Amino acid sequence: MTKAMKIAVLPGDGIGKEITPQAVAVLEVLGERFNHPFEFDHGIVGGEAIDQTGVPLPEDSLRLALEADAVLLGAVGGPKWEGLDYAIRPERALLGLREELGLFANLRPAILYPMMTDASTLKREVIEGIDLMVVRELTGGIYFGQPRGVEKIGDEEKGINTLVYTTSEIKRIARVAFEVAQKRRKRVMSIDKANVLEATELWRKVVTEVHTDYPDIELSHMYVDNCAMQLIRNPKQFDVIVTTNMFGDILSDAAAMLTGSIGMLPSASLGQSASAHRPSCLKGMYEPIHGSAPDIAGQDKANPLATILSAGMMLKYSFGLEKEAALIEKAVFSVLEAGYRTPDIAAEGTRVIGTREMGRRVIEQLK
Ligand code: IPM
Ligand code: MG
Asked: Of the candidates 224, 246, 223, which has an alpha carbon nearest to the alpha carbon of residue 161?
């Protein structure tokens, strides 16, 4: 018998609970059609896990993720848990999973679908044809650097976070960026703040060194403030952007919004090691870029496409199923082409439908 492809499903909070089942349904349909033995195991993370167990990433859920070949995550967080201590906030579930699974490379593609041009706040001529990929370092930098915390000094308080990068951390993410670029337009823009921050001066130096192994790729460097500006001024100049954890967090939101809706963009977080069960697979966690959107949760209004496209990235990167991944992209394209939209991407002349119907329409294309 073929070995099961184990997928840990962690819907999380808010709309995570509505969009994740749509992506699972898409995977199930493809599994049946092409005979892939997908096996789904569900776990709780984020606010729901805090309510039930006191912590955002319970042992059981972490084990599920560690034992799976790939993880499908919805979103975590909500106003209910905002006042909590940092160590037990819903967001810690994400950071904990990234750290524990060693998911150091975060791939965030921003593609503008031609029929969505009017959903962007930018002019048509600026954004038409955008197709870029942010490669964000995900387990280092200021998000994880020590020392950190808030100290009392007399009657003052001092908040501390530390930006740290080692040569090996920079090398491995640079390699991912160059390898991603080899399958695209062969251009990498490395983003830093080397004029002010030593850690990113090292970043620039190491990326430049690693580049000598990839003579087919064109490498350039840009300061992060300039990159923020260039993303709005002329985003088409970018192919692959590689950058630190925090810069990548910020720039990927900006890149996402160029395409009109953050509700459309998937992501993949990849580690070095192969999955325990399927040595040929890359362990990965797949999730939409957007958050848990508590304001529209439970109303069948959320856009499931980012999560469905994330499932597509899972097929491609964790299971090597390129053809099936392409089918998902094509199905999403067709449904949009036919004029169906969730409220976040509604425009004149389109038909607004809910989360479930959007999922159903994508599945219809895949049968
Ligand atoms: C993201 C999110 C997370 C991050 C938060 C929720 C911890 O903004 O994935 O971009 O900052 O990495
Ligand atoms: Mg972010």
From this structure: 246
Write the residue with the smallest CA distance to atom 1 of ligand 1: 249
In whole angstroms, how far apart are CA 168 and each of 15, 171, 272, 299?
37, 5, 12, 46
Q: In Å, how far from its chain's centre is CA 46? A: 17
Token pair of 52, please? Answer: 């039930």
- Taking only the tens place, the pLDDT of each residue in 177-225 is 999 999 999 999 999 999 999 999 999 999 999 999 999 999 999 999 9
> Which residue's structure tokens are 């999403």?
332
Rounded to whole angstroms, the Cα distance separating 20 from 62 reads 18
- The topology (CATH level 3) of 1-112+261-367 is Isopropylmalate Dehydrogenase (3.40.718)
Atom of ligand 1 nearest to the CA of 138: 12
CATH 1.10.357.140 fits 131-258, yes or no: no
Mutate which of 84, 92, 94, 289 for ligand 1 pocket (most atoms within 8 A of beta carbon): 94
Domains 1-112+261-367 and 131-258 share a fold: yes
Closest-CA residue, ligand 1 atom 9, reads: 289
pLDDT for the residue numbered 281: 63
Which residue owns the Cα nearest ligand 1 atom 2? 249
As for ligand 1, residues whose beta carbon falls within 6 Å of it are 91, 94-95, 249
pLDDT in tens, 300-312: 999 999 999 999 9
Closest atom of ligand 1 relative to the 106 alpha carbon: 9
Give the pTM.
0.94
Show which residues are catalytic.
143, 193, 225, 249, 253
Residue spans per domain, the chain: 1-112+261-367, 131-258
